[in-house]
């Protein structure tokens, strides 16, 4: 492992810390170092590469900031898993996005209830207080890794059978599109810290920042759903492309 890394550094141009970064990145992109694999320690790199600890520390720190590595205090440094990403300017089915990466989507229905809209829910759905709604909490996984908690409020008059759908295989998403076809949507994106309960569901440390998407969707002039989607920052990213 270290011999190959040393050769890559010898061949690379630029400052020494940049050479170390480039060599580590090449090891990852070539598949020599796999996601979740522990990389050599700072001490091991310093000794094998004959460079200063400051040089190695800077290279590892910058690769961690860029999301290529994950450093766990007292445990070591590991190759980060490739982040899932979602389109920023479109509303996509998360199951399709996961399948598009060659992975298996799994969903667990945590809770679903039919209720009367609170004042906040009524405002967000553009209905009166006490209007019939569904509240659902769904945990989405990429293979067996939790990737998103979905909190969804649905206008029950527009989708009366929402609570009868099979959530594990994402039938609820297709039912909504049939009952009230989406014609418009909006996103609000924020960085937040999840609650301890959410961290437990997502299997993340309580200090890890999360990406929160607040999403509303319309069918013509009627609001159908208001959702809050919460994902670990280390496993998820947004992507957008635009032209003018």
Which keywords apply here?
single chain, 244 residues, alpha+beta, Arc Repressor Mutant, subunit A, Chorismate lyase, two-stranded antiparallel ribbon, 34% strand
Report on this structure.
With 244 residues, this protein is an alpha+beta fold. It folds into 2 domains: 2-79, Winged helix-like DNA-binding domain superfamily/Winged helix DNA-binding domain (Arc Repressor Mutant, subunit A, Orthogonal Bundle), CATH 1.10.10.10; 84-239, Chorismate lyase-like (Chorismate lyase, 3-Layer(aba) Sandwich). Helix content is 31%, strand content 34%. The chain has helices at residues 2-11, 16-29, 42-49, 53-65, 94-100, 119-125, 171-179, 196-202; strands at residues 69-72, 76-79, 84-87, 105-116, 132-142, 145-155, 184-193, 209-219, 222-232, 236-239. A 6-stranded antiparallel beta sheet has the order 4-5-6-9-8-7. Strands 1-2 form a two-stranded antiparallel ribbon. The radius of gyration is 22 Å and the shape is elongated. One of its GO terms (molecular function) is DNA binding. This is Histidine utilization repressor. Pathway: Amino-acid degradation; L-histidine degradation into L-glutamate [regulation].
List the helices and strands and how they pair.
Elements: H1 2-11, H2 16-29, H3 42-49, H4 53-65, E1 69-72, E2 76-79, E3 84-87, H5 94-100, E4 105-116, H6 119-125, E5 132-142, E6 145-155, H7 171-179, E7 184-193, H8 196-202, E8 209-219, E9 222-232, E10 236-239
Parallel strand pairs: 3-10
Antiparallel strand pairs: 1-2, 4-5, 5-6, 6-9, 7-8, 8-9
Helix pairs in contact: 1-2, 2-4, 3-4
């Amino acid at each position: 492992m270290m011999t190959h890394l040393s050769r890559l550094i010898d061949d690379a141009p630029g400052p020494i810390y940049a050479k170390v970064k480039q060599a580590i990145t090449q090891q990852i992109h070539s598949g020599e170092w796999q996601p979740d694999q522990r990389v050599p320690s700072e001490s091991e790199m310093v000794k094998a590469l004959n460079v200063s600890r400051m040089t190695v520390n800077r290279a590892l720190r910058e690769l961690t900031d860029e999301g290529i590595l994950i450093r766990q205090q007292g445990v070591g440094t590991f190759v980060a898993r490739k982040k899932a990403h979602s389109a920023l300017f479109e509303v996509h089915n998360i199951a399709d996005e996961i399948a598009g990466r060659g992975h298996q989507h799994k969903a667990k229905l945590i809770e679903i209830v039919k209720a009367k809209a609170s004042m906040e829910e009524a405002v967000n759905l553009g209905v009166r207080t006490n209007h019939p709604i569904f509240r659902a909490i769904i945990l989405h996984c990429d293979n067996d890794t939790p990737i998103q908690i979905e909190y969804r409020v649905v206008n029950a008059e527009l989708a009366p059978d929402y609570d009868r759908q099979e959530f594990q295989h994402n039938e609820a998403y297709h039912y909504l599109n049939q009952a009230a076809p989406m014609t418009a949507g909006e996103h609000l994106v924020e960085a937040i810290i999840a609650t301890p309960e959410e961290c437990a569901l997502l299997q993340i440390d309580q200090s890890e920042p999360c990406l929160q998407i607040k999403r509303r969707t319309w069918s013509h002039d009627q609001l159908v759903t208001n959702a809050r989607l919460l994902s670990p920052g280390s496993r998820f990213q947004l992507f957008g492309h635009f032209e003018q």
